[in-house]
Amino acid sequence: MEAALIGSFISAMATVLGAAPIFFIRKLSEKWKDILIAFTAGIMVSASTFGLMPQAIEESGILALTIGIALGIFILDMIEKNIPHVDAWEGSRMSSFDSKSLLVIIALFIHNIPEGLSTGFSYASEDAGLGPLVAISIGAQNMPEGLILAVFLINSKVSKLKSLIIVTLTGLMEAVAAAAGYGLASYVENLIGVGLAFAAGAMMFIVYKELIPESHGHGFERSSTYSFIGGLLAMVYITYWFG
């Protein structure tokens, strides 16, 4: 449990690290935003494909993999459909703090719950290297998300300090969810394999529903594609060297 808490906390605080540049910049160019988003998409695809899914099969078999992926996709889809919100990526282009701004913040709190569960499930696995691998991939995704949220808040007339506090709180929600995921997987028999597959399904949904479309919608598709491949290869190398 201690390793899971530390790993999830570091992953969650990557959101804060990503937001740190707000003390030096107020605007993030569309090109660099797309490149960052595509890079994290590559990391998440790599972690899901080469880490989570093979381990889920090893832990609990192909049926558990199928059920877990379906659950991950379904739950993320229900969150998207039933909780009205404006994506943080779209929100970063808004300029006044209103009800939509509040919905962005609430949505990110909820959005971070399945990500935290994913980290917790991974640390509960028999594969000791899987937890850090997923924590790295989630943390990498959190960094541009934290920066974009912070820039959005500043553009919405929120002070830099308050923006950083809000970003920190959204990250801490992920750490709480990770602890819950670890506890569930540790004490409920045969849940680890389904949980790992759930994590893979949730991450793949985020990639294909949000990250790739957003990174390829502003005329920088070529740069984003190279960045995606770079993120995928970066996680492959991390797995090869440290996994």
TrEMBL record:
Keyword terms: Cell membrane, Membrane, Transmembrane, Transmembrane helix, Zinc
Keyword Isomerase: no
UniProt KW Cell membrane keyword: yes
Protein origin, superkingdom: Bacteria
Pfam family, one: Zip
Subcellular location: Cell membrane
Membrane topology per record: Multi-pass membrane protein
Transmembrane segments: 6-24, 36-56, 62-80, 101-124, 130-152, 164-185, 191-212, 224-242
Cross-referenced PANTHER family: ZINC TRANSPORTER ZIP11, ZINC/IRON TRANSPORTER
Similarity section: Belongs to the ZIP transporter (TC 2.A.5) family.
Record protein name field: ZIP family metal transporter
Organism: Paenibacillus xanthanilyticus
Species lineage: Bacteria, Bacillati, Bacillota, Bacilli, Bacillales
